[in-house]
Amino acid sequence: MFDQIMIYRFVSIITNTGERRKFNRLHLVIPILIGVISVVNDIIVPNEQQVELIYRDTGSGTWFRLVYVATTVLFIVYNSLYPVLNLRNISRYKRIIVNYSSDAYSTSLDWLTFIQILILITVPLPLAGLLMGIPTAAISYLVLLGALSYFINYLILCYNLLNHHYLIIRPDAAEPDMPSTATTVDRKQFECYLHDKKPYLNPKLRVTDLAAGLNTNRSYISGFINKEYDMNFCSLINRCRLEELDRQRLLSANAAKTNMDLVLMAGFSSYRSYLRAKEEQDKQTLLKMFE
Fold this sequence. Notes:
Helices cover 67% and strands 0% of the residues. It is built from 13 helices and no strands.
């Protein structure tokens, strides 16, 4: 239970969309209470009697059996509810990150989504079945599956954290050089800025960088892009990068360069980010053909 709370706390931090929220300590109350009761039960009820009550249900020791079943039910709830809450937070984060980062594909937290789904599939039922004394669920392979998933989860977690495959959205108040009031920007001025300054060449470009360059704020520039171009910040910047890539390919000076070199020169952080942007553009082009 504490493990799920720790992961939930971590996901809440990494998917924070700019609001300042405190962690509710009530999340810890039930696991602590269950832990204390379990320790007391283990001291009072001998181990042999515990096995009899769980696997053979002898009828004596009703209190121990009741506590054991309640603990198992809570175990299932914690290992099901918290991953669902995490998936909800990740989904909300994905809707916002595309208006904040130009490299949202690398920071989309797909790896974190995979972890939560893996927990939902492999952890609650096999281990709960073992605790309930169900013979089929007590098969070693099913138990190992639940334990192995945690090991895999932490490997995935460490790998992606070390490679910075995430981006925490900072509140406007924490952004340096961020005007408190929005300066009006028209389409011509905006496109001139993109053409002259080429901010999209920065693979880590954020909407706050664009807003600072235009002396406005994040909320205004994000709304401006959505209204004027009918797309989010990430899609617009990647469209500029794809156009830049086409220009670079036509230059004779780049004839000896590899496609990977040109992709990085155009502002993409990786070849995978380029492929995702190209796939999205092709999809949008196809949709327009059938409109």
